[in-house]
Design goal:
- The complex is a heterodimer of chains A (129) and B (368).
- By secondary structure, chain A is of the alpha+beta class.
- Chain A has a single domain, classed as OB fold (Dihydrolipoamide Acetyltransferase, E2P) (Beta Barrel), CATH 2.40.50.100.
- Helix content of chain A is 20%, strand content 34%.
- The two termini of chain A are 13 Å apart.
- The mean pLDDT of chain A is 96.
- By secondary structure, chain B is of the alpha+beta class.
- Chain B contains 9 helices and 19 strands.
- Chain B has a 6-stranded mixed sheet with strand order 10-11-12-9-3-13, with helices on both faces.
- Chain B is globular, with a radius of gyration of 20 Å.
- The relative contact order of chain B is 0.15.
- Classes of the chains: A alpha+beta (129), B alpha+beta (368).
- Chains A and B meet through strand 4 and strand 6 of A and helix 2 and helix 8 of B.
Chain lengths: 129, 368
């Protein structure tokens, strides 16, 4: 499985991308492969304060449900409005149109604490060894 | 979970891998969970046709002069009423009325065949062996039996020309023994989806020949391979039982709403007295259908509450691709089992408003 290089990763299979001062967050293609068809995404309200590694939402798939964990601390700046109408975007484009929230980070430097693509790829390989 | 390397394979394992299926451990077998996607596969079966590998299920042959009397004592439904070729769904019960397994029993030309859940093969065989008299010959044929299901409104189109014509005229829960792509098979008009369809039992040495034949024959009918994920959502929409979730050793067929399979007029069967007592004393809990408000899904193990008081437990829950709603089944106190009762499914901080609805959830199926 190939993962994009321009984002950072968590062990809970979220990704985070710094763009113009905010951090876009979604779940990885590995996560969507595990979950199957996503049918609902519950996201926080804009303005909510998020703590790193704490749940910020829920993703419901047909067969299973999973919490979403904030990759970094900050304030919710935007949620993806398209997911309300079309949650399948998470499966179709996990690193693109299927993004979930944008966070105004407390400290953009926190992003460096997350996994690089090499580290995340190794994690996935180890889980399937 | 066992490492995948030690899991058993069905005769179609190489086909699942070649088709790019996501494989998972199910009852000790490495089985396809999904091929293209749960929703797509589910809708393919509702609208056209699907091919399921369910070879993990167990098959026991029951022969001998005492076979009928023995089976009739082991299960709640009426085995003696079976005509040649007919199949029967029944709980197999313990003396306390708990369900050992839910099984199919076929009356075949020279024997009875019991079809059991994969997770219960060893338990059921041991259970039967312990009470089988000398004039009953029991054989576990699970490893020598491949089982495929072709399900969907276009199932007949898939099989036409590749099975005896009489097989296409079989009634629901009827079977015949005949040729399937030249392979000797039990061809049965049964299924677990609510759609028209067939279940096909045959020797696994011919497995790939049959699989490839079906996939080729099914091209014109939009036949797709279907994983266990969609198998579960299809059965849940029909309110069919999944052993280990909705029924088990501690639940009774009456509580599960399987009263239609419990023939209390039979002279004797395991659990008869316990079930008679339960029936006359009234049921403490019942399995009900739940429909959720919103898109959060009540899941297996969640607590069901009424006004903050626990009244039951969710046994199965999923998003329903046909209805585009979250649906579930749960055991609840009898007083809360009335259609329309407002309840809540809860787990951790999650609270999902639900109400009791009739089963089946989905009524548009083509089974007959």
């Amino acid at each position: 499985m190939e993962f994009p290089e321009d984002v950072r990763y968590t062990s809970e299979h979220e990704w985070a991308r710094l763009e113009h001062g905010t951090v876009t967050v979604g779940i990885t293609s590995y996560a969507t492969d595990q979950l199957g068809d996503v049918v609902f995404v519950e996201l926080p309200a804009v303005g909510k304060q998020l703590e790193a590694a704490k749940p910020f939402g829920v993703v419901e798939a047909v067969k299973t449900v999973s919490d979403l964990y904030a990759p970094i601390a900050g304030t919710v700046a935007e949620v993806n409005p398209a997911l309300l109408e079309n949650p399948a975007l998470v499966n179709e484009s996990p690193f693109g149109e299927g993004w979930m929230i944008r966070i105004k980070p407390n400290d953009p430097g926190d992003l460096k604490k997350l996994m690089t693509v090499e580290e995340y790829s190794r994690l996935i390989e180890e889980q399937h060894a | 979970m066992q490492p995948l390397a030690t899991l058993k394979h069905t005769p179609f394992h190489a086909r699942h891998k070649a088709a790019g299926a996501k494989l998972v451990d199910f009852a000790g077998f490495e089985m396809p969970l999904r091929y293209s996607g749960d929703v797509r596969e589910h809708l393919a079966v509702r609208r056209a046709a699907g091919l399921f590998d369910i070879s993990h299920m167990g098959e026991f042959d029951v022969r001998g002069a005492g076979a009928l009397a023995f089976l009739d004592r082991c299960v709640t439904n009426d085995v003696a009423a079976l005509e040649p070729g007919q199949a029967l769904y029944s709980p197999m019960t313990r003396p306390d009325g708990g369900i050992v397994d839910d099984v199919l029993i076929y009356r075949l030309r020279d024997r009875y065949m019991m079809v059991v859940n994969a997770s219960n093969i060893a338990k059921d065989f041991q259970w039967l062996k312990e009470s089988a008299p000398a004039d009953v010959e029991l054989t576990d044929r699970s490893d020598q039996t491949a089982l495929l299901a072709v399900q969907g409104p276009r199932a007949v189109e898939v099989l036409k020309g590749h099975v005896p014509d009489a097989a296409l005229d079989l009634g629901y829960y009827r079977s015949l023994e005949g040729s399937l792509f030249g392979v000797e098979a039990v061809i049965s008009r049964t299924g677990y989806t609510g759609e028209d369809g067939f279940e096909l039992y045959f020797n696994p040495s011919q497995g790939e020949k049959v699989w490839d034949g079906l996939m080729r024959a099914g091209r014109g009918a939009d036949l797709e391979p279907i994983g266990l994920g969609a198998r579960d959502t299809l059965r849940l929409e029909m309110g069919y039982m999944l052993y280990g979730n909705d029924i088990d050793d501690s639940t009774s067929p009456l509580e599960a709403g399987l009263g239609w399979t419990v023939k209390l007029r039979k002279p004797a069967f395991a659990g008869k007295e316990a079930l008679e007592r339960q029936k006359s004393g009234g049921l403490l809990r019942k399995l009900v259908g739940l429909e959720a408000e919103g898109r959060r899904v009540p899941r297996h193990g969640m607590i069901v509450e009424q006004g903050g008081r626990p009244v039951g437990t969710v046994t199965s829950g999923s998003f329903s691709p046909s209805l585009e709603k979250a649906i579930a089944m749960a055991y609840v106190e009898t007083a809360c089992a009335g259609i329309g009762t407002a309840l809540e499914a809860t787990g951790g901080a999650t609270r999902i408003p639900v109400r009791v609805v009739k089963r089946p959830f989905y009524t548009g199926g083509t089974h007959r």
